[in-house]
Amino acid sequence: MPTDEYDPEMGRKFIFVTGGVMSGLGKGITAASTGRLLKNAGFDVTAVKIDPYLNVDAGTMNPYEHGEVYVLKDGAEVDLDLGNYERFLGIDMTADHNITTGKTYQHVIQKERDGDYLGKTVQIIPHVTEDIKRRIREAAEGTDVCIVEVGGTVGDIESMPFLESLRQFASEEEDGDVLFTHVTLVPYSKNGEQKTKPTQHSVKELRSIGLQPDILVGRADDKLEPATKSKIAQFCDVPDAAVFSNPDVPDIYHVPLMVEEEGLDEYVMERLGIADEALPKAERDNRWRELVTADRTGSVDIALVGKYALEDAYMSIHEALKHAGIECGVDVNILWVDSDEMLDKHEERLKDADGVVVPGGFGSRGTGGKIEAIRYARENDVPFLGLCLGFQMAVVEQARNVLGHEDAHSAELDPETPYPVIDLLPEQYEVDEMGGTMRLGAHDTDIDAGTLAEAVYGDTSCTERHRHRYEVNPELIDELESEGLRFSGRAENRMEILELTDHPFFFGTQFHPEFRSRPDRASPPFLGFLRAVLGELDARELGNEEVTA
Ligand code: GLN
Fold first, then answer.
1. Which family does it belong to (predicted)?
2. Contact, 530 vs 332, CB < 8 A?
3. CB 515 within 8 A of CB 509
4. Which residue puts its alpha carbon closest to atom 8 of ligand 1?
5. pLDDT > 70: what percent of the chain?
6. 211 and 163 in contact (C-beta within 8 Å)?
């Protein structure tokens, strides 16, 4: 358990990032990009995301409102921004790196109920703010620099206790150990002039709660004009050199290159007093730049058959496909196929695709379309990757269309099905609290030698992140495996990976490999899938008798 003690001698550096004017300015990406450059310069960097909402975690949140729920290795269900930090910084984070109002209040209220406050009146200041500061310090432990991003916009009621905590935090640390960065919008007037007034107002709001930004980053279509920078500097009381641009770039992976070009990383190191400890420029890690600027030869079209017509709802899948594309040297275009409307409208798009991905999900809406898409991929030898619900629907498709059990289904989607190929395990039926049966986080899978799964992973085991309740029904395995489908990865009686033996690439995983994919370490199932799309991998030609056993 975390302690309330803190050693002020540790000398860590903190970068606090707030947002102004409006949300959705990409301050997380700017922060993660700055962190990446510090890492390239030899520093150990971590990040904390503060989400001022009242939810304890993102587990119950609808992807339509908040984008995908990202899963960490310890099973924490968190905001998708943590995925960006993991991908940009190349680190594995934990539940402690996502602080929410719900989490903090729950802890403080529990302590109050336990009598830990010894009869004191429990208040936002100091009890909640102390708890927030403790969490930040603990998450930063063992690193050189910790980036703390406050979600939302300055002025939101919910973020007040967090901003007050940051104010206290800064005054408790040594001068020069904490930097405040404020990211705002710089809009254009009708005649194309960059307007600084919203930034000025937003900084005024920050100052009214005792925070003076050290660095301002202006989000605009183009770079900020020198005159715009000067004006912001003058009105916000920072040197000209502390104002940076954050213009549009073709892809978020280009943001670190842009931040470097602007010199934000150097300025941060200078202000934090760590410039002398940074690696000389010629010795810095250059892999990121090489990866994102490498030549691509051609492109492929991948159908993503899901129910949320919102890119953020499948963010990690988009990213994982991109990583596989980087490794294979091709661009990956995603053709969105709405599983709800697939049969009427989107079938053509499926046919235009070079490969089909069916992602995870909950609930029955759109599952008919997903099953049809899987059938199409299976019958036409089109490479297929099924993830979690997509894996489960591949089992249902096999039972219905290959084994002839027309009513086969998942008990989650049709509790009355006479042939529940996907079901809760018996012990799970005993736990009825909502969420109580969810299997979360990193678990090991044993992989059979000589299978496509082994070829994909290059190993006979893998560790991937999970988020599901239902499993392949262990009583039906023999029949399910009787016509070319094979469960090539298992965790005791849980089926983790499936493949077809007479198809170029038909691969499903009960886990979510997308959460471990990184720009410089593409996820094996995504890489295998893309190689199959490019004709470089064919399960039928693995040259191993056991594959077709
Ligand atoms: N709804 C399915 C289950 O709970 C799949 C979950 C998912 O795709 N993340 O098992």
1. Belongs to the CTP synthase family.
2. yes
3. no
4. 360
5. 95
6. yes
CATH topology of domain 15-291: Rossmann fold (3.40.50)
Residue 9 is predicted with a pLDDT of 45
- When pLDDT is cut at 50, 70 and 90, the band that residue 350 belongs to is confident
Q: Locate the domains of the chain by residue range.
A: 15-291, 296-547
Is domain 296-547 in CATH 3.40.50.880, yes or no? yes
Closest CA to 477 of 498, 504, 507: 498
Which letter does DSSP use for residue 360 in this model? -
At 412 the three-state DSSP class reads: coil
Q: Note if 388 is an active site residue.
A: yes
Note the pLDDT of residue 190. 93
Considering the chain, what is the average pLDDT of its residues?
A: 91
φ, ψ for residue 321 (rounded to 5)?
A: -65, -40
From ligand 1's centre to the CA of 467, what distance in Å? 7
Q: Residue 26: which pLDDT band, with cuts at 50, 70 and 90?
A: confident
Residues 6+ apart with CB under 8 A from 196: 186, 218, 228, 231, 232, 235
pLDDT of 493 higher than 80: yes
Radius of gyration of the chain (CA): 25
Residue 66 has pLDDT above 90, yes or no: no
Same fold, 15-291 and 296-547: yes
512 is catalytic: yes
What pLDDT is attached to residue 56? Answer: 87
Residue 105 has pLDDT above 70, yes or no: yes
Nearest atom in ligand 1 to 470's CA: 10
Give buried/exposed letters for 510-531 (b at 16+ CB in 10 A, else e): bbbbbbbbbbeebbbbbbbbbb
Give distance in angstroms: CA of 471 to centre of ligand 1.
Answer: 9
- Is 200 annotated in some ligand binding site? yes
Mean pLDDT calculated for residue range 520-546: 89
Point out the catalytic residue in the list 328, 388, 397, 468.
388
* pTM: predicted TM-score of the whole model, two decimal places: 0.92
> Residue 332: enclosing H or E segment and its boundaries?
strand 331-338
Atom 1 (ligand 1): residue with closest C-alpha?
362
CA 392 – CA 510 distance, rounded (Å): 7
Atom of ligand 1 nearest to the CA of 389: 8
**Which token pair is 419?**
């042939």
Per the omega criterion (within 30 degrees of 0), is the bond before 415 cis? no
Q: Edge-to-edge strand order for the sheet containing 243-246? A: 98-100, 45-51, 145-150, 13-19, 178-185, 215-219, 243-246
Q: Which protein residue's CA is at the shortest distance from atom 6 of ligand 1?
A: 468
What does each C-alpha distance from 420 to 112, 148, 251 come to in angstroms? Answer: 47, 46, 43
Rounded to a whole number of angstroms, the distance between the first and last alpha carbons of the chain is 50
